Each structure stands twice: as C-alpha cells, then as structure tokens.
Amino acid sequence: MAGPVLEMRSIVKTFPGVKALSDVTLTVQQGEVHAICGENGAGKSTLMKVLSGVHPHGTYEGDILFEGEVCEFKDIRASEQHGIVIIHQELALSPFLSLAENIFLGNEHAKGGFIDWRETLRHATELLRRVGLSDHPDTRVADIGVGKQQLVEIAKALSKKVKLLILDEPTAALNDEDSGKLLDLILELKKQGITSIIISHKLNEIRKVADSVTIIRDGQTIETLDVKAPETTEDRIISGMVGRDLEHRFPERTPHEPEKGAAPALEIRDWTVHHPIDQQRKVVDNVSIQVRRGEIVGIAGLMGAGRTELAMSVFGRTYGRYAGGTVLKDGEEIRTRTVPEAVKNGIAYVTEDRKHYGLNLIDTINRNISLSALGKVAKGGVVDEHEERKVAEGFRKSMNIKAPTVFEPVGKLSGGNQQKVVLSKWIFAGPDVLILDEPTRGIDVGAKYEIYTVIDKLAAEGKAVVFISSELPELLGMCDRIYTMAAGRLTGEFPRAEATQESLMRQMTKDKEVTR
Amino acid sequence: MSTDVTAKSPAPAPPGKSGTAAGGGLLQLVLDGMRRNMRQYGMLIALGLIVALFAVWTNGDLLLPRNVSNLVLQNSYILILAIGMMLVIIAGHIDLSVGSLTAFVGSIAAVFMVNNDIPWPLAVLLCLAVGAAAGAAQGFFIAYLGIPSFIVTLAGMLVFRGLTEIFLEGQTLGPFPEGLQKVANGFLPEVGPETNYHNLTLLLGFALIAFVVIQEFRDRRRQQEFALDVPPMNLFILKLVAISAALLTVTMLLASYKGTPIVLLILGALVVGFGYVMRNAIIGRHIYAIGGNLPAAKLSGVKDKKVTFLIFLNMGMLAALAGLVFAARFNAASPKAGLNFELEAIAAAFIGGASMSGGVGTVLGAIIGGLVLGVLNNGMNLVGIGTDWQQVIKGLVLLLAVGFDVWNKRKVGS
Questions:
Q1: What Cα–Cα distance (Å) separates residue A256 from each residue in A423, A451, A459, A479?
Q2: What is the distance between the alpha carbons of residues A267 and A447, in angstroms, rounded to a whole number?
Q3: Is B215 near chain A, with CB under 8 Å?
Q4: Is B295 in contact with A357 (Cβ distance < 8 A)?
Q5: pLDDT band at residue A250 using 50, 70 and 90 as cut-offs
Q6: Which residue of chain B has the CA closest to A342?
Q7: Quick check: A458 and A427 in contact, CB under 8 A?
Q8: CB contact under 8 A, A363 and B303
Q9: What is the percentage of chain B residues whose pLDDT exceeds 90?
C-alpha cells in the first residue's frame, strides 16, 4: 500500500443544538476497502457528507487531505472533480430515464448543448460491462431490479473517473445474491486501484470485503482495526460500536413449551396469492403455517421468497390477488378481507418499510401510536387527547423511545426509535397475533437489543409472534420454531434446537429458480 | 423468570446517549410549540400587521364599525369555502369546482324560490342536499374510481358552470324571499334597554370570552392532573389576555354598529364545529392520516375511501351554503357568480398553513388565511388601489406566505 489517500483530521460538525461530530479522525490507505461502522446517529453519514461537500467547507472544523492536498470543497461537484463520489443509501436514479441517461445525468456527453447519443451509448455500454451488467443502455431504470440499480449507480460513479468511492449502506435493500455480486464488484474495483469507503451495519459483509474498519461512536472515532487480524472478531467490533461488552446479542429466553391440545392462535391453511399485475404468477403458493400463544415463529427466506407477500395478503389482502386459503384463529375460521377486519380479529402486521407503510412521518409520536386503535382513546367518535397523551407517554417510557416529548414529529427520530413507535402502535391495538416483518432492519445494535426484549416480553405475555427476518442469527437467537420459504413455497420447518444457519440456508435456496 | 427482569429495564442505554432523552423540559416544550405552529403564529402576526397598515393608511376607516361589519359580510362565503377546502387539502386533494358549484346552487335556489315559490327554509335544505349530492358524485369518482381529484373537479368546474348558464338561460334571476335575504345580510335583533351598543352582541361577546378563558383554564388543569408539562403561568396569562383583547375589540366594533351579522354566527358555528371535528374526532384524525401517509393509513385500518368520499360530500354541502349566502346577499342568482372563488379558497388554505403534499393545516388557519386576503381586498379598495394591482399584490402575498413556510421548514429541518 502506498500510504494514505485520504486523511480527515479532527472533524467537528455542529448543527443547531446538536454536535453531530465532535472529533473524528479518519485515515484511508491508497487502494484499500475501508469500512466505517457505528450505531445509527453515531455520525457516519454526516462524516461522509462533510467529505463529499454536501456540508461545504466552512460549516465544519478540521482538515481534509486528499492525495496529500488540503481540500476545501464548496459543493458535491467540487469533490467529484477530485474523484470522490458518494452513493447514497436512497438511490438517486430517475426511474423513467434510461440507464445511459442516468449514468451521464448532469455530466452528459454533448456537443453544443445537444446530447451526443453515439458517444453516450458507447460509453454507457462500456461502463455497464465494467460493473457486470449486460442490460441494454436504453432500458428504463424502473424496469430493472434494485440490485441492478445499485450497480448502475456505481457505473455512474465510474463515469466520473472515481478515485474514492463512498457507499452508504449499499446492500441494505438487496438480497443475498445481489449483495454478493455488489461486494464482488467492490473487490474487483479495488484491483483496478479504486479505493472504497463502505458504511455498513452488516458485520459479515465487512469481514468479506474490508481491509480495515473504523468505528465511530457518538460523533467520535473510537478505533481503527485491521479486519484481517485474528483478534478482530464480530463481537470485538460490536463492543466497539456500543461501548459495552455484548455478552449476548439476544435476551435470554425460556423456550416455549407448546400446550398439548390447544388450537394454535393463528393458523394459515393452503394460502395462495397471485401477483397483482402478472396474474399467472403465484407469489405465495399453497403455504400453511401455524403459531401458538407464547410462541415466536420465524419465517426465513431470501428476497422474492414471498414472506412479506404472505403476511400482507393475510393482513386484509393488502398485497396481490387472493387465490385460495383460510385463516383460523384459536381453531375457528375468521375473515381477514380488509385491514379493519384483520385488526378486529386481533391480528397486527408491523411492516418492513416503516417510512412508507408504517408511519405518518410529519405527525407526532402520540398521534402515530393511537392511529390504528383510536376507538380505545375515544368516546362517541371523539378522541380524548389527554388519555391519548397518557397512553403515548406510557409507551415512550416502557419502550424507551428517545424523544423529549410525545409531540415530537416521528420523522425526526432515528430509525430505531421510529421502529419502537411502530411497535407501540400495534401493541396498543392489543392484538393476539403480531406479524413482525423485518422489525430490526436498518437500526443499530443497541436498539435491536431493545426490540428483541420487547418481542420476548410480548411472547411471555401469551401473544403469538410471527417473526420475518433476513438475518439468520436473529431468527436463531429469538425463535422457537423457524419456517423457511423459497419462491413462494414453504420448504422447511425447524425447531429451535435443530436449526443452524447452514440448514436454514439450504432450505431457503431449495428449488429456487435462478433469476438473473 | 429472567425474561421479566430484562423486560422491566429495557437494554442498558449506550453511554453518552441517555442524557438527551431526559433533557428538554419546559422551555423546550414552549419553543417546540411555537416552532411547530410558526406558520400560524406568523400569519396571525402578518394579519395584525396588515390590519394596522391599512388602519393607518385609511386614517382609521378600516376599523370603523360599519366597515368591520361589511368585512364580515363580504368575506363570509369565501371563508365558508376555505373551511371545506382546508379539509380537502389536508387529505392531499384539491377541489377546483367550488366556484362553479357555488354559482350552480345559486341558480338552483333561484329556480326553487323565484320561479317556483317554494318556501325558503325548505328550498335551503333542498339546495344543501343538491350541493351534497354534487360533492358526493365527485367524491365517488375520486375515492372509489381513483381518478385524481384535480381532474374530477376540473371537469366539475366546467360542468357546473355550464349547468348554471343553462338553468339561468344566461340571465340573472331574483329577487329572493325576504327571510333568506335577512340571513345573508341581517343582524341579530336589538333587545333590552337602550344603550349606545347592541346589547345582544355585547352579551354574546362577553359570553364567548368567558367561555374561552374557562376552557383554557380547564384544559390546563386537566393537563396538570395527568402530570403533563404545561407552559409557565405568565406565558399562559399573556396568551389569555391577548385572545380576550382581540375578541373584545371585535365585539365592541360590531356592537357599536348594527350588531352581530347572522352570517357571522353561522360561520362561528362552522369554525367551532369543524375545528372540533378535525382536532378531536376520529374522522378528523383519519383525514390527517391519509393526507400524511396514505399507505400507512390504509395499513392502520383507516377506511381511506370512505373518508375521502365524505370530505368531498362535505365540500359540496359547504359550497352550496356559500352559494346560498352569496345569492341572497346580492339578491340574485347570476351566471357569473362565484368566479375564481375556488382560487381564493385554495389561496386562503395555503396562506393559512396547508401543505401541497397534505397532512398539515387547521380550520383556524384557513380562517386566518381567508381574513388576510379579505382585509387586503377591503383595505386596498378603501385606499383606492385598482383591481389590477390588487391581484398582483394578492398573488405576491400568497407566494410570500408559502415561501416563508418553506424557508422556515428548511431552517428548522437541516
């Protein structure tokens, strides 16, 4: 390695009322893949915004040295001219423009103000090949999957002659297969001499691609570790992130003993759902599962396995076209054709996408919590605001939602705290069965532990919990039983004791059509 | 059992983070409240400034009792529309048809009362029903068939304007029965001993002030009962004094002319009623929820289609009411009635704090926004600014108000 390509020295960044970065130092070596990890709100994204000129020079303290020069970027363009390109968590592609148009957006191949299509096409094809895409450059972005879109973002970065590529949680929205491809590409780019900074929550990912990892906590650099060194274990990184030894990542749980004879709290029989547009396609194919009171049942599966689709179609037919199957609660058939029917029958579904489907971000904590069960704090159609406030206060304390008051708009909370609000909302609805869809996605380790504790408590209170997750360790740590799904079908069922990551993964990839 | 222990003390917070949760406190609450209502406070202050400006400019003519009374009568129909429009906009929709619908109902009213001599109370009910039906029809297309409200109500705007002209055959039709005219132009009767003021108006004004003060105190005490944070006493008193002074001024002004316009009573009832529904009723909450995040509201069990349908039904009924008041005030139904009313109502809602993306706004905000426009109109008329420049100025005020809001949000948000 040829010495540091980037040095950020004692960066301090203050927002009105908050010190986001109090003293961050980051040194990235030429040609390496450098991971940054830390809890949500630790300051990772802010640091990258400082580096890429989103927060211009003058709004922060400290120095940035890139290739040995002191840099004072006044906007993103300035940093891009130096070859620093950031790819944000939320993809910034225009869905109805073509791949080629997106790649050169703001940076078009043009002659006298008119686009040079020939050069655009040639260059786009070349760049797409470099990132391993064989799609035609005229394809609309809306017509390719998220995994490929991420690769298009990288092609776009390459078109800007990138030297330092910054990826902010690049695999958060990808399935394992696409994640794998993306990580391989990062390693491939490394061979071509491109340095990368990758922000990630996924420790196995860091182990796979990174050479070193810098841990940030509460706006300060804690340490930089050599990933390849034997003493750098996952637990070592986690304890750096949370500042405490994480003896166990999951609360201790007494496994559930199924009562003999009692009917399961929720039983789904022969459930089949067709795709909403392509009606020939079975998204959920003849699935039967059951969950008992006090039990936590996991559903494992890769993206496209049909887990969310199963849950949403059972919950008021909010996905796809129903094509058969029954739902039984405590042994009796119930109707769940609409959301109010499902809620009335004691079923709650906590969505995987809290920002779009779970919360009204511009509204306050208390009003979000009460929304699905307003009747409980109302008399004769009129909401008792004081009662509502008391309820919300109660949840703020019991769920440890970090906000000064319950009147804080939910959009201002961190991901973990938003998730606690969504959970509060559905716990307040008083269901017997909770379907939790990726309840810990995109939230930090500390908040995850808190969510696990809550789930555990719900089961201890006798609720039946269905736990959908893409993180196998989480399912293994929390569930009494785990189902696996692949391509819409149920492919396995494991008691806790018999399940391992390998055995689950084998069933999750079983009979799965390979789609490329 | 070990699970119970962990459940009661949810996960040890990482060091250095625990402090932020406990912080905040009183000042924070007050500042938060101010900041969250910045748009409305800002507009209230702007309204005050506009009133002061024109009061000085017109050598006090703006605040002459007679003019204040006129101001209420002149703006009543726009304010009625603005209330309904605010609900529509909060739900994330728009209604371009209300101006035409106002004229349409006016023409129907004339056909009922002038051509067919139907007793006016019955005719009024029929007209409200027609308005509700027209709103419901549009609501059906929007809520159940999923056609964008902009398109449906743009169609409605053309259809109702056309129907108005068909019904009236291009003529103005009048006069209306005296009873109805009194509702639109009349005042509460004079009762009691001879004073220099209108007794009933004084009584109503004082009762209103007393009611507001008592309500505020009860609210505060209940909050304290639940051990919730309340603003400090001096701030609270200041707020009460300000409210009372404003109400008292309006009361005295109205009482020293002919008293309380009946339309003002209707308007007051609507503001209180709709304000209460939007703030406290389940359906009000659901309106905010579907405007704030429609998919999330659906998944929470909100019957979004029904709510949307009802919002437009309600808008139609309020447009009918506005149409009746307008026709009765000018004592004729005209094919050109209600021109651009939809734009005035929409402007009032946005000046009063609504957001293009929905989910935000209050009924009181719509009234404040409507009054800003009303006082501007009235004041500019008094000082002799032509309608040409009036439009320019009103346009700039709308731009300024929303621009201020955007700027303010950006400042707070970043």
A1: 22, 19, 9, 9
A2: 31
A3: no
A4: yes
A5: confident
A6: B301
A7: yes
A8: no
A9: 56
Instruction: Report the alpha-carbon distance of residue B118 to residue B132 in Å, rounded.
Output: 20
Q: Which residues of A44-68 are buried (b: 16+ CB within 10 A; e: fewer)?
A: bbbbbbbbbbbbbbeebeeebebee
Q: Tell the residue number behind the tokens 């390109």, with chain if given.
A: A85
* Cross-chain Cβ contact B298/A318 below 8 Å: yes
| Residue to test with chain A: of B29, B31, B299, most A Cβ within 10 A | B299
ipTM score for this prediction: 0.73
Q: What is the pTM of this model?
A: 0.76
Q: Tell me the residues of chain B between 238 and 277 that have a Cβ less than 8 Å away from chain A.
A: 276
pLDDT-derived band at A251, boundaries 50, 70, 90: confident
Tokens matching residue A281: 């396609």
Report whether the peptide linkage leading into residue B175 is cis, meaning its omega lies within 30 degrees of zero: yes
Q: At what angle do helices B65-90 and B98-110 cross, to 10 degrees?
A: 120
pLDDT digits (tens, 9 = 90+) for A305-351: 889 999 999 999 988 899 999 999 999 999 999 999 999 999 999 99
B38 in reach of chain A (CB within 8 A): no
pLDDT at B411: 56
B288 closest CA partner among A418, A318, A362, A419: A362
The proportion of chain A whose per-residue pLDDT surpasses 70, expressed as a percent, equals 93
Least confident of B187-191, B370-374, B393-397: B187-191
Q: With 50 as the cut, is the pLDDT of residue A359 above it?
A: yes
Which of chain B's residues have a Cβ under 8 Å away from the Cβ of A361?
292-293
What is the average pLDDT across A351-378?
91
Cβ contact A393–B359 (<8 Å): no
What mean pLDDT is predicted for residues B302-307?
94
Q: Are A103 and A127 contacting, i.e. CB atoms less than 8 angstroms apart?
A: yes
* Over residues B22-33, mean pLDDT: 54
Give the closest of B293, B300, B302 to A361, CB-based. Answer: B293
Q: Which two tokens stand for residue A205?
A: 């990912």
Q: Classify the phi-psi angles of A84: left when phi > 0, otherwise alpha if psi is within -120 to 50, otherwise beta.
A: beta
Strand order across the A347-350 sheet:
A347-350, A433-437, A464-469, A296-300, A481-486, A489-495
Rg (CA), chain A: 24
Considering only the beta carbons, identify the residue of B11, B16, B20 that sits closest to A450: B11
| Strand, helix or coil for residue A86 | strand
SS (H, E, C) A7-47: EEEEEEEEECCEEEEEEEEEEEECCCEEEEECCCCCCHHHH
Beta bridge mates, A333:
A328
**Least Cα separation, residue B252 to chain A (angstroms):** 34
Answer yes or no: do A357 and B16 touch at CB < 8 A: no
Burial status of residue A418 (CB atoms within 10 A of its CB: 0-12, 13-18, 19 or more): buried
| Measured distance CA(B349)–CA(A205) in Å, rounded | 51
pLDDT digits (tens, 9 = 90+) for A90-115: 777 888 889 999 999 888 888 888 88
Closest residue in A to B221 (Cα) is A386
Chain A contact present for B300, CB below 8 A: yes
What integer pLDDT is reported at residue A1 of this predicted model? 47
Contact between A251 and B229 using a beta-carbon 8 Å cutoff: no
Alpha carbon A351 to its chain centroid, in Å, reads 12
Mutate to test the interface with B, among A220, A362, A455 (most CBs of B within 10 A): A362
DSSP-based three-state secondary structure for A465: strand
* CA distance linking residue A449 with residue A459, whole number of Å: 15
